[in-house]
Specification:
The protein is α+β, with helices and mostly antiparallel strands. The protein has one domain (3-115). The chain is 33% helix and 34% strand. The protein contains 4 helices and 4 strands; from the N terminus they run ααααββββ. The chain has helices at 8-22, 26-33, 40-49, 59-64, and strands at 66-70, 77-86, 89-103, 106-115. A hairpin with a 2-residue loop joins β2 (77-86) and β3. The longest helix is centred in the N-terminal third of the chain and has 15 residues, at 8-22. It is globular. It starts with 7 loop residues before the first helix and ends with a strand.
Length: 117
């Protein structure tokens, strides 16, 4: 499922993660997500390697390029794939997140990958 099919809280968390990347807040993003798969240095290296300076697009733009996969079947856990944006528009670089509701109203967010698929 794509875009609007995810709960507002999941969408808000995706926007926050993309916003942190766009602001260059790699260490904050690593701390927030636990840095289990990608460190702040890993994220910075990927953006440098692909020469992408991400920007935070509008919600309409962001979620038009975002796919939400309900991996739990009950809406409590999502795998998210969202393409990053630059000043030139949408890029091929994709941020992949795993978002799960751990207790009612509380979520864990993990950066699964940052790559060109």
């Amino acid at each position: 499922m794509a875009g609007d099919d995810a709960p507002p809280e999941v969408r808000r968390l995706v926007r926050r993660a993309v916003g942190m990347l766009a602001a260059g807040e790699f260490h904050e993003l690593e701390r927030w997500t636990g840095g289990r798969r990608l460190s702040a240095e890993d994220m910075a290296q990927v953006l440098e390697r692909y020469e992408v300076l991400p920007v935070l697009p509008t919600d309409e733009e962001l979620f038009a390029e975002t796919d939400f996969y309900d991996v739990s079947g009950d809406g409590s856990a999502y795998h998210v794939e969202t393409n990053l944006w630059s000043d030139h528009g949408v890029t091929d670089l994709q941020l992949r997140l795993d978002i799960a509701e751990t207790t009612p109203g509380h979520y864990s967010v993990e950066v699964n990958d940052l790559l060109i698929p």
